[in-house]
Design brief:
about 100 residues, 5-stranded mixed β-sheet, 3 helices, about 35% helix, globular
Length: about 100
């Protein structure tokens, strides 16, 4: 069975809602659609103040997107140490950093 296609604008709105619900900071949305070789349409970058908050952001995004759109990320990486977690929703990739790690990169 093919995966249901989710509207990018609706997915983007719900991801941002999930980040804001647990007070994620410094949200940046990078529109990559004009780049022919881009791996996705958008990068969303945000940060939390600790590994606990980073995991809370990830869990909040998953919960809201699942509840509102019945969608889940294709892949999540980095939750073990929660310094930099990547959530891949195929057309939108979410990067959740701890503040110090984001400043470094």
């Amino acid at each position: 069975m093919a995966k249901k296609t989710v509207n990018n604008d609706v997915l983007l709105t719900n991801i941002i809602k999930g980040i804001e619900e647990v007070k994620g900071n410094d949200i940046d949305i990078l529109d990559l659609r004009a780049i022919d070789t881009a791996v996705c349409d958008y990068f969303i970058i945000c940060n939390g103040s600790s590994n606990t908050q980073v995991n809370a952001i990830v869990n909040s995004v998953q919960k809201i997107v699942s509840k509102e759109l019945k969608d889940k990320p294709w892949h999540i990486e980095g939750t073990d140490n929660a310094e930099w977690v990547l959530m891949d929703y195929v057309s939108i990739v979410v990067h959740v950093f701890q503040k110090e790690i984001r400043e470094y990169y």
